[in-house]
């Protein structure tokens, strides 16, 4: 995983040093803000084949530490449930108009099945931002209260990019080493359950851990064993 603020260490970290690796990254975090712990997981899939793409969601045991803003398309009792669960934006045509006018910012879209005729018209706006709700992610649902609460309490959604890599945050530098490690292992176990049946060979190929503005460390895969 490379960017202008990130370099990959040549040294790999083995199972006995996972928490030390996390501690090392925390100590190197000298920013004035609390950085996120991010992970990049290279999967042994052919991302060009739809049936091998990996997409899902899971609730991290310790959450992400991020404030997630949720927009919910619902009306009546389900709209009331969304508000009770903590959704920031709730509505139907009025919410659609706010999104079209770029009046609000949010991280997740949830919709009832009957509202999809409205949400579908926002595909060109929500799609490129990865904000379209879907049945597979559980964000098209009639159980609005529970899904909004799960999202607010640490649920993450993931999808591989065109190179077959999963990118997501698994906590903050204010978290303990143990919490980051447990979140990472939970994510890996979730990904294993999503392994495409047509994916052959090594599934979890490489794992890189980094902080928002820091370097990254490649973890030895055997720590999962």
According to CATH, what is the topology of the largest domain?
Ribulose 1,5 Bisphosphate Carboxylase/Oxygenase
Determine the strand fraction and express it as a percent band: 15-25%
> Major beta sheet, specifics?
4 strands, antiparallel
Indicate the low-confidence ranges by residue numbers.
1-16
Cα-based radius of gyration, to the nearest Å: 19 Å
CATH class of the largest domain: Alpha Beta
How do the helices and strands follow one another from N- to C-terminus? HEEEHEHEHHHEEHEE
Total of DSSP H or I helical runs spanning 4+ residues: 7
CATH superfamily of the largest domain: Ribosomal protein L1/L10, rRNA-binding domain
Overall geometry: globular
Tally of distinct domains: 2
Give the termini distance in whole angstroms: 23 Å
């Amino acid at each position: 995983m490379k960017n202008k603020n990130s370099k990959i260490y040549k040294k790999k970290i083995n199972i006995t040093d996972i928490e030390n690796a996390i501690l090392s990254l925390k100590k190197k975090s000298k920013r004035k803000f609390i950085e996120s712990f991010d992970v990049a997981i290279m999967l042994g899939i052919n991302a060009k084949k739809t049936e091998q793409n990996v997409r899902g969601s899971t609730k991290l045991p310790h959450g992400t530490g991020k404030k997630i803003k949720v927009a919910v398309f619902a009306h009546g009792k389900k709209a009331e449930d969304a508000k009770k669960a903590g959704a920031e934006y709730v509505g139907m045509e009025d919410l659609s108009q706010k999104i079209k006018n770029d009046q609000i910012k949010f991280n997740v879209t949830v919709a009832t099945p009957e509202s999809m005729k409205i949400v579908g018209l926002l595909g060109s706006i929500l799609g490129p931002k990865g904000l379209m709700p879907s049945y597979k992610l559980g964000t098209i649902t009639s159980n609005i209260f529970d899904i909004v609460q799960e999202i607010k309490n640490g649920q993450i959604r993931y999808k591989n990019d065109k190179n077959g890599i999963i990118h997501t945050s698994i906590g903050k530098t204010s978290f303990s080493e143990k919490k980051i490690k447990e979140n990472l292992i939970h994510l890996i176990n979730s990904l294993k359950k999503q392994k495409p049946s047509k994916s052959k060979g090594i599934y979890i190929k490489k794992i890189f851990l980094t902080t928002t503005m820091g370097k990254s460390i490649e973890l030895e895969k055997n720590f999962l064993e």
